[in-house]
Amino acid sequence: LTVYEEAFTFETRGEFDCSDITQNVSRVVRASGVKKGMALVFAGHATGVIAITEYESMLLRDIKTLLQKLVPTRGGYNHPANAHAHLRSLLLQPGKVVPVVGGRLSLGTWQSIFWIETETRPRRRTVRVLIVGE
Ligand code: ZN
Question: How many whole angstroms separate alpha carbon 91 and alpha carbon 114?
Answer without folding.
Answer: 16
